Structures are given as structure tokens and as C-alpha cells.
């Protein structure tokens, strides 16, 4: 495999320099399933596992390799799998809130960040144009994409099942003004060529969307074969089941790479509120015109947000979703600060304990 076609560039090459003399090789994580990985190297794909030292040093789940990560791996003669020694710095990462269960230090069911995909050039936010169409979910996905530093593109699939396309496009333009969007039908291959330019050799695209929006169908058509299983969508509610059960980096015939992810309806805001400010720039702009700087946009006089709600220039559902995401962001910020303090305290306790042990040995 050509590393450049896998997304290798100067950013990762410079980060890898420190490990060349150790006999390690660069590799990209193609699949992550429980404690096992599949990696792409210059000599092909191979199974891999995490080195004990890397596992021990990982403070959070996000320190483990994720699909799309570049790693320094070791291949020893006679072994049937590689050993992942180091995770190279990430260009970006798409993250969500997840519940840990035992695999990490001090996990115990704690809620922390999970990296869904790393080193992504573009994220396709896939939404069905059937009865599962949900502008509020698209707003949430947009906020998360912007927090992660990944360029978002909205893919509106199942155009063949939509009878009110113009109305739905107006809704999308309201919640995602200025974001590139493409209307396609993966089933009939209508307009599928409009998304191919994002999949040039070495470019990595991640697909995100809830179950049943057609992500696997899109990938199968781009591959030119039925590689991924596609479950039928319920005629009762247009909702599909989770077809993909793990994340996978797939090399396309075009030379581009695509990350397939399990369908997710619940994605919680994890990072700071920067992504919210971009996604809801219209509300942020209104807030800047309020009479009071600390306006809570409730019953205060001279509130530009409340005035926009009353005269109908601001959609109430959009505003309520903005408030909901703001609360999530504020809550997660508090939780992260608390965890950071606990980790710092634990680190210095270990250092102090080690120093006491050294003093005992000298005596």
C-alpha cells in the first residue's frame, strides 16, 4: 500500500521521525473492535494489538488508537500481529460522549470522550429525506463537526422517497446556511457523482448519521460491490437497525478513504461551545443586540432573542435546541474540569509515593 494514498503527509511524517530509529513502522488504523485492531501498512493490512506500556499510560479512552489514527507499530519476526506502540498526534478528531466500562484506569462506568474517527478531511452528515428527516439532529451534528475541526458537508439521501423536497431544502438552508449540501439517492444512484470530488486519492471522509439513512448503501455504490450489509428500513417508521457494528476505514477504487460508523441517534456535545457559536450564529447575533450584556433571553426587557421569537423571525424549535445544546456543553465543561483536577491530584500522589519509596531504599 502507498502511504500517501492512505492519507500520509508531512504532518504525520514529522511526528513519526522520533520513532524511526526504534525500528517501528508507520501504520493507519483501519478497524477497531473491542481490544483488537486492523492496521494498514506499506506491506498490506494486518491485525494489531496495543502495547502494554501504551495501555498503562492511557489516562482516558481518547488516548487509545481510533479508526483513522496514524500509529507507530512494531513488527517482530514470527508473530502473527503487530504491536501498536505510539499513537501519533491527530490532525483532528470527531468525538462523542460515551460510558466507559472497566477497560480504562478508574473507569467504573464513568462518562468520558470517545473518538469516533481521527484525521478526517471531510465529514458527511447523512440525513434521510424520508419520514426520519430531522433538522434538529442535523444542528447537533453540525455543532459536533465544528467542535472537532472537521469540514462538514450535508448529504440528503433518499430523494426518490421525498415529495416535498423544496420545503425540506428551505429548512436545511435555515439551520445550515453556507454549508455545502448534496441531494442524492444512493438506491437509484441519482446525483451520486456530486460527492465523488470529496474522495480524491488520499482524502478521508467520515460518514455520520442515524441508522437507516443509507450510509452502507452509499459506500456499496462507491465501492461498486455489495460489501456492507444493508438492513431493510421499517415501513412503519422509516427507521433502520444498526447495520454497522464497528467503525472501519475503507479504501475506495477512486483512491479516497471513507470511514463507516454505526448509526447513532444520540450524540452529545462534548467540547466547548465554539461549535455552537458557528452553528447558531443567527442566535448569537441576536444575543449581541440585547439591551443587557448578561441577558438570559427569558423575561428581560430589550431582549432581541425574545423579540425575534415573538415576530417569527427565529424558529422556536431551533432556539430550544440551541438552549438544550448550551446546557449540555456547560455541563460537560464542568465535568471535564472536575476530572482534570482529579487526574492532576492522582498524578502528584503517585509522584509523592514514588519519592517516599526512593527515600526508604536509600536508608
Task: Describe this entry's structure for a reader.
The protein contains 9 helices and 13 strands. It is of the alpha/beta class and 363 residues long. The chain has a 5-stranded mixed beta barrel with strand order 1-2-3-5-4. A two-stranded antiparallel sheet has the order 6-7. A hairpin with a 7-residue loop joins strand 4 and strand 5 (82-87). Residues 101-109 and 231-244 have low confidence and may be disordered.
Biggest pleated sheet: 5 strands, mixed, barrel
Structural class: alpha/beta
Mean pLDDT: 81
Uncertain segments are 101-109, 231-244
User: How big is the Rg?
Assistant: 23 Å
Q: Give the SSE order as H and E letters.
A: HEEEHEEEEEHEHEEHEEHHHH
Helix content: 25-40%
Number of beta-strand segments: 13
| Oligomer classification | single chain
Q: Kindly, what is the distance between the CA atoms of the first and last residues, rounded to a whole number of angstroms? A: 57 Å
Q: Number of helical runs?
A: 9
Write down the overall geometry.
Answer: flat
In which order are the strands of the major sheet placed? 1-2-3-5-4
Strand content: 15-25%
